[in-house]
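Forum: Protein Structure Q&A
Topic: Joint prediction for protein chains with partners

I've read a bunch of threads here and the consensus seems to be that you should model interacting components together rather than docking separate models afterwards. I'd like to see that in practice. Below is the full input, 324 residues plus whatever partners are listed. Could one of the regulars post the assembled result?
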Amino acid sequence: MGFKIAVVGDQETVTGFALAGATYAHTYTTKEETLGKLGEFLASDEIGLVLITHRVAEELGYDFLWMMQTKRLLPLVLRIPDKTRYVPKVDELREIIKRTVGVEIMIRKEGG
Amino acid sequence: MAVPLAVPPTRMELLKLRQRVGLAQRGHDLLREKMDALVIEFFEVVRRIQEARAKALEQLSVAHRALSMCFAIIGTLETKQASREAKRELQVEILTRHIMGIAVPAVEVEEIERNALMRGYGLHMTSSVLDEASREFERALNLLIELAELEGSAFAIARELEKTKRRVNALEYILIPRLKEAIKFIVMKLDEMERENFSRLKRIKAMLEERG
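Posted by a regular:
Agreed with the consensus. Here's the joint model:
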């Protein structure tokens, strides 16, 4: 079964991924509207992957994190940087590692 | 400090408790092993994520640069128009794989890069920079899908890891010490009762000897 791809973000990101073949696109306007749209995407059965820019995700704040906690396995949600290459300072994966394993780890290149 | 369970000090209860400790110990060992295996799995995924992320982000910035060129050369409105006309039917296969009983996503994607004719926008009004931008974004999307799969697995494994860790700790620091405390309590109590009985018997014997 095939799943479709949705994009939430600023104009450029949305345009770019639409050119690449993403079926659903939503340009960030207001927090409420975007939250509603995102909820729709997450509830849909035909969407398998939602791309959202870090900046928008941060704009949505706690509501977004709550949605991430409560969503099902699908669709996958991936946060991507926008054209300004904006990535938040706190790396979420590193936070998770710190919480679960209890130590901070650095992964080096093998043989390094 | 381990608070002992409230148990009646009987031999029957002692046997039961010993069995429970054995069971808890076995469960603890199994969970420990599971946790170790999960940690190994998790690090493998994290290592792959870092590689995949570096590649995907690099490609994404290349794509954004190409798109900016496109905006500049053929115009913002025209580019957006083309993006609306483009065929947007991309499909990905997402299956769930099971690693040690955890459902993790496995994404498969077929041909993501298309040629200019398959993209669906009109060719006579657009320029090659638009094709360029589309191609770069297709490549970026391909890498991002891979990254999404890995991140999805990492989150699923992390969640399971957290759960397992809580269970291991609950067994190790709460349940097993409590059971051991309870066993100690019963053994002490039984010994005490035996001593009481012993002295009682002695006393009775002395009384009988006095009378007889």
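The CA atoms of residues 12 and 18 of chain B lie 10 Å apart.
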